[in-house]
Amino acid sequence: MAVYTQVNSDQVRAFIAGYDIGPLETYVGIADGVENTNYLLFTGSGRYILTLYEKRVAEGDLPYFLDLMDHLSRQGIPCPVPLHDRMGNALGRLADRPAALVTFLEGIARSRIEPGHCRAVGRALALLHTASSDFGKSRPNGLSLGAWEQTLFQSEARLDKYDKGLYEEVSDDFARIAASWPTSLPTGVIHADLFPDNVFFRDGEVSGLIDFYFACNDFFAYDLAICINAWCFERDADFNITKAGALLKGYEENRCLSAGEIAALPVLCAGSAMRFLFTRLVDWDTTPSSAVVRPKDPAEYLGRLRFHRAARGPDSYGLGRT
Questions:
Q1: Burial class (CB in 10 A: 0-12, 13-18, 19+), 116
Q2: Which side of the chain, N or C, has fewer Cβ within a 10 Å radius?
Q3: Alpha-carbon span 165 to 161, nearest angstrom
Q4: Which of 317, 214, 306 is nearest to 261 (CA)?
Q5: Largest CA distance in the chain
Q6: 128-150 confidence digits (pLDDT tens)
Q7: The pTM is what?
């Protein structure tokens, strides 16, 4: 979440007038994240999140995301529920941007991650994967292998500007990843961005999953690899195998991994690290100074990519450990 587009109170009041949520009391911008503009609204009936969709989100994809959240909430997944206006529309426009209102979720995102949180996230991720099995829509992953190749060969100057010699290093990594990328793992709807700031907890359990605006259809194990990168490295860049083992154990409490998924885990983790290295580099280089946003440090994912390069198979990720 972030704030790129500033809106005034009159604009917000005009937008929510079509919804049965009572009058606007106050609103505040949410500075966390990097993708869309978000405000927390307080109205006569409670708290809501107002999202204005920015550059990286294609307007044509928004029905997929909103319908997915509707579907998952009906299946018992704790996620935001899109509000529909009196005409039945979940999507509107505000400040010349597509915009939507969703319900507010209770809980807090954890800044200090313990193995128990990782195990709970693993359970929640597996439930998300199984709950979406009968979702009737499909969206390809626009930030997978083909996109990395295109970004790589357009980013030589950006990579070397960040760290001299990085383009050659990452090119070698891409060649290894592309040569080993799987083709036939179990596939379905994935979250694709389940970072700690997108998960809320209450009493040690997951109370909310948010920010579904990278959701797509891809390998379930790739979603798990994204979570390993996001949840299982310490601030000093060291990999925590205990956290990884807890994440994987939690996942398998609700969905068993196939032998092929386990074998592919190292290359999927490396690919996930490359994906977020690239997008963080772009944000680091292009985020406007006027945006109320904190670009995330690409160095974190460069360190993860280097770890996965040296990993010696699935055992390096804590399979079979608690």
A1: middle
A2: C
A3: 9
A4: 317
A5: 58
A6: 999 999 999 999 999 999 888 88
A7: 0.91
